[in-house]
Structures are given as C-alpha cells and as structure tokens.
Amino acid sequence: MEFTLGQVAQILQGKVEGDENAKVSRLDKIQEGKPGGISFLANEKYTSFIYDTEATAVIVSETFATSKILKTNLIRVKDAYSGFTQLLEAYSLMMKTGMEGVQEPAFADPSAQLGSGTFRGAFSYIGKNAQIADGVKIHQQVHIGDRVKIGKNTIIHPGAKICADTVIGANCEIHPGAVIGGDGFGFAPQADGTYKTIPQIGNVIIEDQVSIGTNTTIDCATMGSTIIKKGAKIDNLVQIAHNVSIGENTVIASQTGISGSTEIGKNCIIAGQVGIAGHLKIADNTTIGAKSGIIKSVKEKGSTLFGYIAMDMKNFLKSYSIFKNLSSVENRIKELEKKK
User: For the chain, how far is it from start to end, CA to CA, in angstroms?
Assistant: First the structure.
C-alpha cells in the first residue's frame, strides 16, 4: 500500500516538514532507510543516521532540533516512538483487514451465510450452515466446519482449523495452525485394561476480542462448552482441554497445559510451561510463574504462585534458599558427628 506523507501525518496528528505529496509504501530502520520508506528517530544515539538516511521520511518528536541540512522529509509528532508505534498498528490493521473477495480455488457450502467485505483465501473450506459475519478474513488453507459461527472482523490466519459448532465472537484473531474444537481427551478404562472412547459432543465458545496463538489447541467440551471469555490472550503452543473456562482478560504464555473442567478466573497471568490439573478453580487476578504445577484450587484473589508443586512465591523462595544449602549443612553435620 502507498500513502502520501500528508496522509500519514493525518493518521498521526502530526505536521509534515517537506513534501506532503511524497509517497511511502513501507517501514524502514533509520540506518537502512531507502526511497519509499518511512522511519522514526526516538533514541539520541541514532541521531547521526537522520542526516544520511535515504528514507523518504522520518518521524521525529516536536522538540527535535536539526544541526545540519536534511535530505529527508520530517513528520513531527508529540512523541516519535509512540507515533511510530501508532503507524505500525495502523499498517498492521490495514494489511490484515484490507483484503476482500475470493482467491480460487476456495469452497463454501451453498448453505453457508457469508457477510459483506469478507475474504476467503485459496484452498479455504467453509462447511454446511456456517455463519460468517461482515469483514471476516479467512486466509489460505483454513478449515471452517459445519455450523460454525464467526463474528464481525475476526481474522483466521492460514492453516487454522475451526471444527464443527464452534462459536467465535467479533474482533478475534486466530493465528496459523491453531485447532479449535477438536475432540477432548476422553477415555473410559475397561475391565480388560483397554480404554473406550467417550464421545465429545459439546463445542467451543470464544467471546469477543480474543487472540489465540499459533499451533494452540482448544478442545471441545464433552457436553456443554469450553469457554474462552472476552479479551483473553493465549500464546502459541498452549493446550486447553475439554470444558475448561478461561476468564476475561486472562493471559496465558506458551506451552501451558490446562486439564479438563478447570475454571480460570479473570485478569490472571499464567507464565510459560505451567501445568494445571483438572477440575480446579483459579481465583481472579492470580499470577502463576513459569513451569509451576498447580494441583489444588486457588481461592484467594491476587495470589502469586511459583514452583512445582506451586506454593506461595515468598514461601517457595525461603524454602529454596534452604534447599540449595543442604549439601553444606550435611557436611557440617557429618563433621559434628565425627567429633562425638
């Protein structure tokens, strides 16, 4: 996409010094800037590059003062770093939402309902009686199962699989390779030592403004629904089992596993590689440190847990300070025993 500096300045509520009609089509580092690129200067140690950069424009703060003649145009804003971040956000949104129409080959069952302004990438599939709202972007090789419902302006990235009966809200983002609504891990042990599969007949409900990371898996419920509530952010390679509930605005980092029927409260922070056992309840505003193991419910709101098996972080650190000195304590005990 190509924009004039005047258009960029309007987005950033800034002012152009130079040619308002000059055009830019990409974002560059200031030291690597080339014609057609736009960069920014927010750190003083990069100031020297502004006099040599070939970028068409550089975003600077209102207070920036030049000491030499510039070859580039300037866009002055209140804060250069915030301004460039705003531009990145606008660029990313336009790249994600600017597409419309159908790339062939793509398949949508005749019974599926497709809203206006949607995009369907090549080799995407939409099943029977699916309901796709306005502005939804379904990228290449995405599978949308039967009776799936997807809300406005949601983006499904390449290779994601949305299984039958899943409900996804508005303004969500499902990243590449995620699988939403696969069977939960349900097997009943038999007298002869074998296991019998328990049919998983529920679904997954994802509310508005949820982000699901690359290659994350969210299992459908055995009965009822696995629920990811509004504003939750889930990282890559996370496993969420059947009938789990994730509260509003909770964030979960990579490689975490949450066992079946556990309820996570709102505004929780769960770090990487955390393991949470099944049928537990985790209170609102709980923070769980990386690689922690949770085997019992957390009832007190605002708790901070760490360790395996997880305990109050302060108690863990006190215990660890003793544990790491055990070998020296043992040696001292042995020396004392020799003196008897």
Answer: 85
pLDDT 10s digit of each residue in the chain, 340 long? 789 999 999 999 999 999 999 999 999 999 999 999 999 999 989 999 999 999 999 999 999 999 999 999 999 999 999 999 999 888 877 767 778 899 999 999 999 999 999 999 999 999 999 999 999 999 999 999 999 999 999 999 999 999 999 999 999 999 999 999 999 999 999 999 999 999 999 999 999 999 999 999 999 999 999 999 999 999 999 999 999 999 999 999 999 999 999 999 999 999 999 999 999 999 999 999 999 999 999 999 999 999 887 878 888 888 888 888 888 888 888 888 887 6
Say which DSSP state 141 is in: T
Which of 3.55.50.30, 3.40.50.720, 2.160.10.10, 1.25.40.10 is the CATH number of 102-317? 2.160.10.10
The one catalytic residue among 139, 143, 242, 279? 242
Q: Both tokens of residue 29? A: 């580092």
CATH architecture label of 3-97: 3-Layer(aba) Sandwich (3.40)
Q: How far is CA 231 from the centre of its chain?
A: 10
Query: How far is CA 28 from its chain centroid?
Result: 25
143 given a catalytic annotation: no
